[in-house]
Amino acid sequence: MDCIQTIDSTQALFLPIGASVSLLVMFFFFDSVQVVFTICTAVLATIAFAFLLLPMCQYLTRPCSPQNKISFGCCGRFTLAELLSFSLSVLLVLIWVLTGHWLLMDALAMGLCVAMIAFVRLPSLKVSCLLLSGLLIYDVFWVFFSAYIFNSNVMVKVATQPAENPIDVLSRKLHLGPGMGRDVPRLSLPGKLVFPSSTGSHFSMLGIGDIVMPGLLLCFVLRYDNYKKQANGEVPGPGNMPGRMQRVSYFHCTLIGYFVGLLTATVASRIHRAAQPALLYLVPFTLLPLLTMAYLKGDLRRMWSEPFHTKSSSSRFLEV
Q: Could you tell me where the beta strands, DSSP code E, fall in the chain?
């Protein structure tokens, strides 16, 4: 993919700062920017979910349609599968705007997660550690300590504050009558996944950053596993681990760490009955086992600072 963005060390360091500025803008000026932010989020969610649906649409349209592109003038040329995926995505977003249902919001949030993981790369373990450590500090500060400065939990307020529905705003601007936009709900934006409790009395939340950032790390280690397998011909490399442990992949180690970290964050949230910064648990449970295994396998130096390059013939294994 030519449009893949690789994060470098400078971007990794400044990303938490940029995220903090964005969070403060949403905290102080939410009433002023909520409609614009909602529309931008809906557009991004439409594009992301269309990308998520595209493989399924390609499979469905393959028997009945050639892959010829249809011209739309200055808008470009698109295949039938691309048009179908985009149409379904637009329909889903419109239903979400009209109903505000949490399941549709979760679907759009998952589309955003998949798109970000697909188009962003971490080139090395060094950049991964810089990015995740910075975001860990960002998450902990804004969840635990922002209330001491701003007299409110900035992260929780921004994450839970619903936005005005654009249809309601439009009906008021055009003076279409008080009943035109009255039935549309305020929208909880798809910057998170929500899960209803067993009683339905409240929702648990998981920010998409808590999915995307560890997901980028998982993609990095999966690519490294494939890189090492091809470079070594599946022969265990030097290290201080027995042969059986040498066969444990970095991907499975990190994935298990993510699961344990997420479980720990959930338990901590239930025990303390308060919002928890998920990265406080996810980062140590993913990075520490990964660093330990890389050291014991003798791969730490290579993973830390040497971006790996793969042959185009193996790209289908590495583009994750």
A: 5-6, 70-71, 77-78, 120-121, 192-196, 203-207
Look up residue 163 and give its DSSP letter: B
Q: Cβ distance 186 to 34 under 8 Å? A: no
Name the DSSP class of 313: G
| Joined tokens for residue 105 | 């919001």
Rounded CA separation 252/257 (Å) = 8
What single-letter amino acid sits at 284?
P
Contact, 235 vs 242, CB < 8 A? Answer: no
Please give the single-letter amino acid code of residue 93. Answer: V
Tell me the pTM.
0.85
Q: Which residues pair with 121 in a beta bridge?
A: 6
Residues 115 and 48: their CA atoms lie apart, in Å, by: 5
Active site residues: 139, 210
Quick: pLDDT tens for 293-308.
Answer: 999 888 888 899 866 6
